[in-house]
Amino acid sequence: MALLSDQDQQLVRTHLSGLSHDVRLLFFTQSVAGPETGLITKQILDELARLSDRITVEEVNFVLERDRAAAYGVDKIPAIVVLRDGEDTRIRFFGAPAGYEFMSLVEAVILAGGDDSGLSESSRQLLAGVTAPLNVEVFVTPT
Amino acid sequence: MAFESPNITASCVEATEFMDLSRKYRVTGVPKTIVNGSVEILGALPEDAFVRSIIAPPEAQQPQG
């Protein structure tokens, strides 16, 4: 049984119809003795990928491919790394993207698949001055 | 912001799945944003305020102790 209703699927499909770049979601997980949320995440990602030809999901074993996980700064799972035409967008999701977080994931995919950050001019100017690495972690809950 | 700047990495962390991290950063309400593991921003801010807080956090936002 699908997680999203037919209506929601259609809504998301419409939102995703304007993607102009290929978005690959690297899904870091553990096949044996991994967290239960890994299964939920996989189901969510598979459903999401079905809603657009430009979205693919690549499952990466967190234990067997430690180097790759480290390269993307993934230290906990389940984790989703958003790639745009194969390149890191530096957008990450840790934990199952359920509830409200699902829409954040959809928005991240739309952002990655597009050509513009959508930020104001003053924000862009401020961000242009950032030279040191900034790791921004936003803690959320599904509800 | 991550899209706009190559120096920024943006992560969404589901608080209830990573309790040790939530405890470490004393996440009692969401959204709570942590920058470089030290600066804390509580709640959802309008874009301009949020970007400024991330880039040039005022002293008042430093966590105690």
CATH 2nd-level architecture of chain B: 3-Layer(aba) Sandwich
| Name of the CATH homologous superfamily of chain A | Glutaredoxin
- How many distinct helices of chain A? 5
For the record, the count of structural domains of chain A works out to: 1
- On the 0-100 scale, what is the average pLDDT of chain B? 87
Query: Structural class given helices, strands, pairing of chain B?
Result: alpha+beta
Overall average residue pLDDT of chain A: 93
- Secondary-structure element order of chain A, as H and E? HEHEHEEHHE
DSSP strand tally of chain B: 3
Number of helices of chain B: 2
| Architecture per CATH nomenclature, i.e. the level-2 architecture of chain A | 3-Layer(aba) Sandwich
Main beta sheet of chain A: 4 strands, mixed
Unreliable runs of chain B, pLDDT <50, ≥5 residues?
Answer: none
Structural class of chain A: alpha+beta
Quaternary organisation: heterodimer
- List the strand order in the largest sheet of chain B: 2-3
Number of domains of chain B: 1
Shape of chain B: globular
Unreliable runs of chain A: none
- What Rg of chain A, in angstroms, do the CA atoms define? 16 Å
What does this structure look like?
The complex is a heterodimer of chains A (143) and B (65). Chain A is an alpha+beta fold. Chain A has a single domain (6-128), classed as Glutaredoxin (3-Layer(aba) Sandwich). Chain A contains five helices and five strands. The two termini of chain A are 22 Å apart. The mean pLDDT of chain A is 93. In chain B, a hairpin with a 3-residue loop joins strand 2 (32-35) and strand 3 (39-42). Chain B has 65 residues and is of the alpha+beta class. The model of chain B has no long low-confidence stretch (mean pLDDT 87). The relative contact order of chain B is 0.14. Chain B has one domain: Glutaredoxin (3-Layer(aba) Sandwich), CATH 3.40.30. The chains are: A alpha+beta (143), B alpha+beta (65).
